[in-house]
Write the structure tokens for this entry.
Amino acid sequence: MSRSYNKEVFKSYTHADLDSFYGAEALDKAIQKADDPMLTGTSGMFNAIHGRTAFSQLNEQAQTWNVLPKVAWTKSGWRIRTARGVTLGSGGVADGSAIGDAVKSTIVEVSTTPKISDTIFAEGTVFSLLNGDDKYAFEAEMELKGLDHIKDINTQLLKDVDTLAGSNFESIDRICSNNSEATDATISLDAGDADIYGLDRDSVTTYDAYVDHNSASLRNVTIDMIRTGIRTIYQNSGKKPNVIITGSDQYTNIVNLFESNNRFGFMKDFSVSINGVSTEVGQGVGLTVATFDNIPMIEDNDVHTETSGGSRIYLLNTDTIFLGIARPTKLTMVDEESIGRAHQNKNFYTTIGELICTQFSANGKIRDLSA
């Protein structure tokens, strides 16, 4: 049995055609029927893919680590001269006089051993196998832990003088200490807090660095304060500081001091040495920085800050203060299942070295500053 179909049934109708055929009221009701679309909030319909990486919300900068030279560890001891053995300005002798007695320098032996600094992270065995799922990538964690490792050492380098290093790297604040700071009753350091490399600062001034302190009473930084420090360090050591390190608060204060006198605005290309390789501006950690009397100023938010006050200012000569590196930063990956220890892969970054200073008098700090 054959059937015929009216082709009009399948033609396209305009909105006006439907309006005339059904009536406007019926058409509105048809259009307003409840829909059931798939929405992001519909149960079982949508899951956000978070990706394999993570965007850090933390300050990852480690400026002091970047600035300090890295020198290969060749020996664990060095000698320093603490007295000339001669009276300057008295070397003249009469013609024909007998040759005088020999004199010798006072030499002190100093030594230290490298410190081990670790940053450890791990991945469970089952987690490592679920590569088809949306998971945070272990490779991304590895990259961020590398930043954490350097940031951790940077923080060690900037601990307060009253924080003994122990197994950590020594701190700049402890190197830049002296007998006056160690014995000031108001600063209240414990006996031995300022001692370093086994050298006593509680009873002698022999191993003094430059310290401008105000007996723990806060004051505002001044241009003259910094220039006095630079001049005194040069007079005491014959070397001028070649880098200034401070926190962002004091950096801003110094900039403001110069701006008020219309003298600030000098910028300098500053490059540092990384494992003996010098970097140029725009490459590695070469950068353009503000200067104080042509000395580069570096901001580092890990610099120690006084209680209810501001950060300290370090005046350093990097020919005499540097990181001795016995083993550069190394990533070790251990499959702990293979050695019957745990169902995980444990990884750790390790750097072995120590902060070394060969001439305390060539370095110094300004402390007890307001924010």
